Amino acid sequence: MHQIACHECDLIHDIPPMPTRGAACCVRCGAVLLRAQANSIDRTIAWTTAGLVLYVVAVTFPFLAMRSGSIIQETALLTGIQQLYSQGIYMLAFLVLLTCILIPLGQMLGLLYIFIPLKLNVRVKFAIPVFRLFQHFKPWSMMEIYMLGILIAMVKLGKMATIVPGLAVIAFGLLIFVLNFAITAVDSHMVWERLGGES
Amino acid sequence: MNEGNSEMNHVEQAPKAQVQTKRSFSIIWVVPIIALLIGGWLTFKAMSEKGPVITITFETADGLEAGKTKIKFKDVVVGKVTAIDLSEDRSGVVVTVEMSRNAEAYMTDKTQFWVVRARVAAGEVSGLGTLLSGAYIGCNPSTEGAKSKHYKGLEKPPMITVGMPGSHYMLKSAELGSLDRGSPVYYRGIKVGQVVGYGFDENRDGVNIKVFVHAPFNEKVLQNTRFWNASGIDLTMDATGIKMDTQSLISIMLGGVAFDLPKNQPSLAQAEKESTFSLYTDRASIEEKTYTIKRYYKLIFDQNVRGLSPGAPVEMKGIRIGEVVDVKLEINKETQKILIPVLIMMEPERIDILVTAKGVVTNARGKKEELEETGDDQYDMARAIKNGLRAQLKTGNLLTGQLYIDVDIYPDAPPVKAELDGAYPIIPTMPTPLEQIADSVSRIVKKVEAIPFDKIGKDLQLAIKSLTATLDEFKALSGNINQEMVPKINNALSRLEEAMDGVKATLGPDSALNYNARQVTSEMALSIRSMRSLLEYLERDPQALLLGKEGDKK
Fold this sequence. Notes:
Helix content of chain B: 25-40%
Radius of gyration of chain B: 58 Å
Strand order of the largest sheet of chain A: 6-5-7
Largest sheet of chain B: 8 strands, mixed
Structural class of chain B: alpha+beta
Strand content of chain B: 25-35%
Number of helices of chain A: 7
Shape of chain A: elongated
Distance between the termini of chain B: 181 Å
Structural class of chain A: alpha+beta
Strand content of chain A: 15-25%
Number of strands of chain B: 31
Oligomer: heterodimer
């Protein structure tokens, strides 16, 4: 039996043992205090694995092909960053690389690093700092913004060139959702409980 | 109550949170499995779509870019350049190409690759799109031949891509001339194909030119069709004058090949694909070779043959019957006589010889065998010579000085015995008309020389002397005239002057006669005036004649 403060009204609650698939709500303001995620570990691992597969597809397959007349420019995710870099916009290239490539990958790998041992009831080193980092970097994953940028570019450039979306675009779009599912599937309360309880 | 209670007691006893139940979602593992399946399938597809990897060597990688340059056939991408390296001996570049999966079938050693760049040549502009998009590698796939992984790229694009209807033909020629890849092939002035390639024959003695004729015009290439080089401007200068022949403006610049049937030739069956023809040098030469029988004769001239060259026509009454084959110079060492033997070739088939034998008239062709068997060809020639057959050098063209040989029958020519010079019968020659003129001029000169100008000169001198004497006498006579006649004439003249003075005094302006005459004249004028006024009055008033002046009445 432990207590939790409502993040809306700071009312301290005692959390009763939760049934699976249940949500604890604040008695004063009705905010959801925590959700007892059914199979949180399984679901996180599942979504993250799916995300990794999509990630690999998104990175390796051709992303967009722009065709204007007989000029065909085919790009992949990484070549776009390479283009930015070669044009001398180092900061932007670095930012895109970080927010769209490295952080999502780090997030997924981190989740797997924490959840697979949890699933298997094994203890690993640095689980707590890794999870803290994961929580910390959550807002830095900006694949949605990247996707938005691509959509805008497709609409704007549509008049100048024919844009042929590649497989990677679909994979990338799916990855955004899958990664979100994975992150929402994370029952951080439970994770802290288990990591903290065991430490 | 309840609310206050909970608020007050929240430290010791927090209320129990509400618990909501939610449906289970245990099939969550399907998600990564689907993702894995799709990912796996995509990867498998990508791997299996990877076609054969081949290498092509080029001289230069100009315009090629690894990862970007495409291999295209009919503008469809069939592969991609993945790497460009220098060849080991650095004489060229090795381009590694990843072909698409379905390219496996035509990865044979007959398949050709070349770099398509913007090209302005052969009367057409191609590959302009590459100016913007960069070069690409064209390919001409062929399923025949052995499988291959390494290719030698062509530096120039081949002209025909597989699958165009038409036929290829091989033309043999002594030299390429102005032909080039892409030079047009004409049939009656319309472009029906092009030169697709050329190269030496096996011995490198001649040139094989490969042409492609589009369907359906390849039906017009028959077994007896002749191809000729229609390149540029065909300027021929011979005894018939200057002749210019061209096919089209493009062929002037690029050269070209034309084909047609020789005149008066029956149409044979269509020629097989890939058949070999010989390439004639010009249009005229395709017609000439139709005469198979050739007779050689020798003419011996002792005059200047400047302007007579091999190939000059031999004509009879202005119709070509053969040509000059060879012109030589011979000097007889003993007699120091210079002779010019000229070998000519006559084609008897050009002449329809009418032979009347037992009432049957046949032409040369019909009589040919018999002539050759009995050998009375020579007999005929001997008879013709006896009848006055003579050869003459004549000027074909005054402008160029080209000579031709005229063969004709001169019945009053001095008789000559028919001879043989080696294997060739000799046709006797006659001097040129110009030479005849020169002869007569020299005869005239001789006659002029015979005139005794010395004697004439002496006589003339004598005559001049007597003429001088006559003139002297005449001079003496005129001296007499001066002394005696002139004073008398002067006297007569002065008397005449005196007489004239008298006349002047009588008739001059101050003479009485003149004065009187003036007086009379003025009086006459007065009377005429009064007469006129009288007449005017009478005209106005005729009754005055009877009644008198009106004024008088009053």
